[in-house]
Design brief:
This protein is α+β, with helices and mostly antiparallel strands and about 450 residues long. It is built from 13 helices and 16 strands. The protein has an eight-stranded mixed β-sheet, with helices on both faces. Strands 1-2-3-5-4 form a five-stranded mixed β-barrel. It has a three-stranded antiparallel β-sheet with strand order 7-9-8, with no helix packed on it. Strand 2 and strand 3 form a beta hairpin. Helix 6 runs antiparallel to helix 8. About 35% of the residues are buried. The structure holds adenosine-5'-triphosphate and manganese (II) ion.
C-alpha cells in the first residue's frame, strides 16, 4: 500500500478508506484502554490523530511510541468525535521506524524559546513554527519564479565566485586555495595571488547585479535568485552573512517603472501566501504575532508612498524625536529612521528615491544636481529596507567619471564598461532580500529564524 500524505487525508475526508501514513509523533496521551497519537508528516501544520485500542497492540510497542519517534501506521479513516478535525485514523497496524528516547530527545515540551531552538537547528524543523515558516518560504520561492515567468522574464544564474565587489563596500569573503600559513610572496612581501587557483584575488559574490545587467542588455528582462554573501559584522535581527537575493534587471525601464514593478511584485508575493498558506499563517498569527494577517492584508491594499530621500530627511528632522543614529542630509538612513517613516508617519510601505550619491554604489544613474542618484529603496513595516534598487548609469562618460571619482580600478571592470560602449540603453533593477521577505510574511522578528541553517558572525554550526 502506498503512503498517503496527511494533508491529502485531511482534505479527502473519505470515511472507511484504508490508508498507510508515515510521520513523527508530536504527542501521545490516553488511558488504559486507548492511546491517542498526534502524527505530523510535514505536509501540513495539522496533525492526524491516530486512535489505537490497546487490546489490539502489544504493550511494549505502545510504550515505545514517544514524542519525536517515527511511525508507519495502517488503518481506516473514521469520523472524529473530537472538535477541530474531520477525521482520525483507527489504527490496525503500527510499526516504529525510529525511536526517540524521551530522556535525551530535546523537543519534549511545547513552547521552547526561539533562542533555544536556534541551538538545536538540526531538530527545529520538527516544530510547528519552523514547519510553517519553511512551507511559507517554499511557497514564496515558487511564487517568485511564477511571477517572473508569467511576465516573460528569463531566470539567469550569475557567478557565486567573483573578482569584483559590486557594492563597493569591501565586505567580502575571500575564496582561495593558497596555504594561508605559507602563501607565495611577491618581491614586495605581499601575497602573490597570481599563484592562486584563479590566478587572481577572488571572493564570494555580494550581488549578481553587474552580470545580470549584461544579460538584460540582450534578453531585455531577466532575474537572478541565488545566494549572496556579506562579511559585515552586523549582529542585527535583519542581517545574515549568507542570504538569498532576487535581482530583476530590465532594459528600457526607468526608475518609475522600476518602482511600479517592485510594488506589484511584493503585493503579488504577499497575496500568493494569503491565498495558498492560510493554515500556516493562521497558526503563526495565533502563536507568534496576532497582527500578522492584518498587516499582510494592509500592505496588499495600500498604495506605497513615494518620496525623495531629501523630503524624508525633512520629515525625520521635524519629528522632534531623538534617534540613536544622527540625522542630517548625507547620512544613511538606519532601520529606526526607516521604521518611523513607515510605521508612524505614513502607516504604509514607503519608497524613497534620489539618495545622496556618496552613500550609494557607483553604478546608479546620476541626477543633474550633481549630488543625488536615481536610487530607490522600498521600506516595510518592522523590516525597514526590504528592497534596494536604482536606474543604472547607462551613459559611458558619466559612468567612467564616477568610477574615477571613487578611485575604482577601471581596468578590472572593463567588461561592465563595455556594455555602455555597445548598444547601451536606459535600464533599471533591484534586489529583494529573500529572508527579509520571509521575515515580513511570517512575522518572525529575527532573520535567523526564517532560514534553516543561518550563517552569522561567530556561527557556522550545522
Ligand atoms: P542594509 O542597509 O539593510 O544593510 P543594504 O543597503 O546593504 O541593506 P543592498 O545592498 O541594497 O542592501 O541589498 C539589497 C537587499 O538585500 C536589501 O534591501 C535587503 O533586503 C537585502 N540584504 C542586504 N544585506 C543583507 C544581509 N546582510 N542579510 C539579509 N538580507 C540582506
Ligand atoms: Mn548592508
Amino acid at each position: 500500500m502506498q503512503r498517503t500524505k496527511i494533508i491529502d487525508l485531511l482534505r479527502s475526508e473519505e470515511i472507511g478508506l484504508k490508508v498507510r501514513v508515515m510521520g513523527w509523533v508530536r504527542t501521545r496521551r490516553g488511558n488504559k484502554n486507548i492511546a491517542f497519537i498526534a502524527l505530523n508528516d510535514g505536509s501540513t501544520i495539522h496533525h492526524l490523530q491516530i486512535v489505537a485500542e490497546l487490546e489490539k497492540f502489544d504493550e511494549e510497542t505502545i510504550k515505545r511510541i514517544t514524542t519525536g519517534c517515527a511511525l508507519q501506521v495502517e488503518g481506516r479513516l473514521v469520523e472524529s468525535p473530537a472538535k477541530g478535525q474531520p477525521v482520525e485514523l483507527a489504527a490496525e497496524k503500527i510499526e516504529i521506524l525510529g525511536e526517540a528516547n524521551p530522556e535525551s530527545y530535546p523537543l519534549q515540551k511545547k513552547g521552547h524559546s526561539l533562542e533555544f531552538l536556534r541551538s538545536i537547528a538540526h531538530l527545529r524543523p520538527r516544530t510547528n513554527t519552523f514547519g510553517a515558516v519553511l512551507r511559507i518560504r517554499h511557497a514564496l520561492a515558487f511564487a517568485i519564479h511564477k511571477f517572473f515567468n508569467d511576465k516573460g522574464f528569463v531566470y539567469v544564474n550569475t557567478p557565486i565566485i567573483t573578482a569584483t565587489d559590486a557594492e563597493g563596500a569591501g565586505e567580502m569573503f575571500r575564496v582561495t586555495t593558497l596555504d594561508i600559513n605559507h602563501p607565495p610572496r611577491k618581491p614586495d612581501g605581499g601575497v602573490d595571488f597570481s599563484k592562486d587557483f584563479f590566478g587572481r584575488e577572488t571572493n564570494l559574490t555580494v550581488s549578481g547585479q553587474l552580470e545580470a545587467e549584461l544579460v538584460a542588455l540582450a534578453l531585455s528582462q531577466v532575474y537572478t535568485f541565488g545566494p549572496t554573501f556579506r562579511a559585515e559584522n552586523s549582529n542585527t535581527p535583519r542581517h545574515l552573512a549568507e542570504f538569498w537575493m532576487i535581482e530583476p534587471e530590465m532594459a528600457f525601464y526607468d526608475i518609475n517603472e522600476n518602482m511600479d514593478l517592485a510594488e506589484e511584485f511584493l503585493k503579488y508575493l504577499i497575496s500568493y501566501t494569503l491565498e495558498h498558506c492560510m493554515d500556516d499563517l493562521k497558526f503563526l498569527n495565533r502563536m507568534c504575532d496576532e497582527d500578522l494577517i492584518n498587516r499582510l492584508e494592509n500592505v496588499v491594499q495600500s498604495k506605497f508612498e513615494r518620496l525623495t530621500y531629501t523630503e524624508a530627511m525633512t520629515i525625520l528632522e521635524s519629528s522632534g524625536l531623538k534617534f540613536e543614529f544622527p540625522l542630517g542630509w548625507g547620512n544613511d538612513l538606519q532601520a529606526e529612521h526607516e521604521r518611523y517613516l513607515v510605521e508612524k508617519h505614513f502607516g504604509r510601505p514607503v519608497i524613497l528615491t534620489d539618495y545622496p550619491k556618496n552613500i550609494k554604489a557607483f553604478y546608479m544613474k546620476q541626477n543633474h544636481d550633481g549630488k543625488t542618484v536615481r536610487a530607490m529603496d522600498v521600506l516595510f513595516p518592522r523590516i525597514g529596507e526590504i528592497i534596494g534598487g536604482s536606474q543604472r548609469e547607462e551613459n559611458l562618460e558619466a559612468l567612467l567619471d564616477r568610477i574615477h571619482e571613487l578611485g575604482m580600478n577601471e581596468k578590472e571592470l572593463w567588461w561592465y564598461i563595455d556594455s555602455r560602449r555597445f548598444g547601451t540603453v536606459p535600464h533599471s533593477g533591484f534586489g529583494l532580500g529573500f529572508e527579509r521577505l520571509v521575515q515580513f510574511v511570517t512575522g518572525m522578528s529575527n532573520i535567523r529564524d526564517v532560514i534553516p541553517f543561518p550563517r552569522t558572525p561567530q556561527n557556522a554550526e550545522f
